[in-house]
Amino acid sequence: MNVVTRKFNVMRYYIYKYFVGHSAMMGQSLNDEKRMDIYDLGVAEGIKEMLALRGFTKEKILNSTVSDLAETLQIDYYIALIIYNSAKGCRY
Q1: What is the pLDDT, as a whole number, of residue 64?
Q2: 3-state secondary structure of 78
Q3: What are the Cα distances from residue 35, in Å, to 10, 39, 51, 55, 84?
Q4: Greater confidence, 89 or 32?
Q5: What is the fold of 28-89?
Q6: Boundaries of every domain in the chain
Q7: pTM for this structure?
Q8: Treating both helix axes as pointing N-terminal to C-terminal, what angle do 77-89 and 66-73 enclose, rounded to 10 degrees?
Q9: Is there a contact between 7 and 57 (Cβ–Cβ < 8 Å)?
Q10: What share of the chain is helix, strand, coil (3-state, %, to 5)?
């Protein structure tokens, strides 16, 4: 099994684990302030949901380092960088 396939399978496992483990939380309503803050970011809707479910706000993202963000969310560094840059450039 090559490295790319192995990495893809590991990522699929974590995505599956995340959505199965947090499916009960998806029905919960989020307060409007958090929802508006995260949903203004210029990233995919699934990423916005993941951030909202884990309690992230724009300020919390900006107060984290990209490495910490990637580790906390269990995502690739470059995806965390996109999220961070989106929060940095997000204007109301």
Answers
A1: 93
A2: helix
A3: 29, 6, 10, 10, 17
A4: 89
A5: DNA polymerase; domain 1 (1.10.150)
A6: 28-89
A7: 0.61
A8: 120
A9: no
A10: 70, 0, 30
